[in-house]
Fold this protein.
Amino acid sequence: MIKPDATPRYLSGNIISVLLPLPLGGAYDYLAAEGLTAADGDFVTVPLGKRQATGVVWGPGSGKVEAGRLKRVINRLDAPPLSAESRRFIDWVAGYTLHPAGAVLKMAMSVPDALYAPKPVAAYAVNQKISPDIRLTPARQRVLDVLASGPSRSAAELAREAAVGASVIKGMVKTKIIAPTILPSPPLPTPDHTRPGPRLSEAQAKAAADIVDKTSAGGFSVTLLDGVPGSGKTEVYFEAIAKAVETGKQALVLLPEIALSAQWLSRFHERFGVEPALWHSELTPARRRDTWRMMAEGRAKVVIGARSALFLPCPDLGLIIVDEEHDASYKQEDGVIYNARDMAVVRARIGDFPVVLVSATPSLESVVNADGGRYQSLHLPARHGGAAMPEVRAIDMRAQNLPAGRWLSTELCLALTQTLGDGGQAMLFLNRRGYAPLTLCRTCGHRMQCPQCTAWLVEHRRVGRLQCHHCGYQARIPRHCPACEAEDSFAACGPGVERLAEETAELFPTARTIIAASDTVQGPRAAAELVRCIEEHRVDLIIGTQIVAKGYHFPLLTLVGVVDADLGLAGGDLRASERTYQLLYQVAGRAGRAKLPGRVLLQTFMPEHPVMKAMIAGERARFLEAEAASRKENSMPPFGRLAALIVSGDDERAVEDAARCLSRIAPVIKGVTVLGPAPALLYLLRGKFRQRLLLKADKNINVQTVIDRWLAAVKIPRRVHVRVDIDPYSFM
């Protein structure tokens, strides 16, 4: 028996509330037009000022405006409605992040063209009533042979496959040998959940059974799948995806670096026989439109995407996987500021289904939640197939006497010589793009700085440019110093991956070397080619940044050298130690993942630092305990709350005045402390001056309510913008 539709229907003359994908205060009331029937979640076109806008029916009207003064809804679009779960999620994210609901809705409506049914594609089929008087030339017969061997084709496809000109096709249409028809949309292949996966170890099988049972039963749960690099975490959660597909549900997999997921996609195809739907910024507009529509219609059963995929309209979502859940890339810093990992947990709770957080180095927040019983924890303690974890050693760079312009220690060079001589592969890790992080004048010391940001310009010697890694500004290296006019006086200070490649080329001239950084490996195709080169051993030495630090499995890679292991420990970031440990542990996990043993050498000026000691001793639990104790003592997350107010604008004085005004009326509440204002570390960013205030609160304080009242008490000038960052990750 079909259940009656419980969604309220709005008829002609009803007042309805429409939320627009704009940073406005809330939904607007409209009057349902003559003959219009709409329901909550429907996409509708409405007048907005002198133009038209597309929004979503959010519920019955507020009644604040008389019906006679309201504008009418123009029409309802032929698009799948936004589900009640998606609408509740949008409202929740807006309330938590203190951003307008319309700004959050815009992320769910990121492909406006997808709201319209795809245009039918003209195709041609054989006319069943061909006149016997029609003469069939060899060219025409080839066209008929092509159509006889398969479905209808477009004119271009027919001409290509039959090796005829466009005039032949036109002539056959004119003489009614072939007739126009509509080319049906190709069916989307469904992942085959019955295909057998690889044989799982005992620990893998136990973990897989747990999350498969949760996926089958439904109901909200959060599981932290914690396993050492190479322990087979992906194969474990593939079993849960198979169960979701079997039960008719959609599954969403979030990855921090979707453009670099070549090996993951290959493993998925091997397991399920098809590729999943993809969602990331590198897709063409047509592909994004098709993917959005397939997700909204429930035809795509598995989607893998970056953080924005969380807002795709999935009507049958039954499982979310957040891979590398600790990764800072899940935090969006522009537009609506949110953490996709945390919002994924909320989305699962609203939809009443399980979410699995996956990492070899879980975030302290997730570890504390697991220890407190809010999350269940599953642990894979050993590498799959009997491979051992690599040996990790520190090289004290204070004892090295390297010549100027050299960055590789004697011990690391010897290890590289041995590895490459044995026919193995090695990786040098330096989380710094370009040739050098700083360019200065030898004569007067002038430093080349971005004119739009408080940041040094980074030299990229391969393209002959200075670049800002914050706003994208580029310039050629000047012949004369702009400060003292000295000619050809600029010197590169410090190493980047390009400079490291220059050094290794001198030391190992026969080694086949590749640089793997975000500006040299752009997009999925380039990433797939990089993976193929390494897997086929067309590369001996990989020099990479953090894009190669996680997820990859290269059987011949046995040596990892970290050139500047201390790099992430600088600055006042409260997560600096945790992030550095996670990054070093992940990059170390690339070594020795198959039969050959692995080695990891950390070049450090602080071998006594807790991060280095934990890496060498393999004492992750002790490191996390110490980190948690330090945070708890200072009431820092996850044992306290933080929220940042970023005041910005192009008028420096107005920004300073607004920040001071906010400070003067800062809330005076027990358990709440307001720090600042202070200039942001990047005081000038993309041409905007920036001041920061930080609200620190006890765990039980509702910081959203506190900030709402705080901001309501002050009038901010139009040229000044105040952004709220709940649970900040970046303090730049």
The domain at 202-385 is CATH 3.40.50.300 (Rossmann fold).
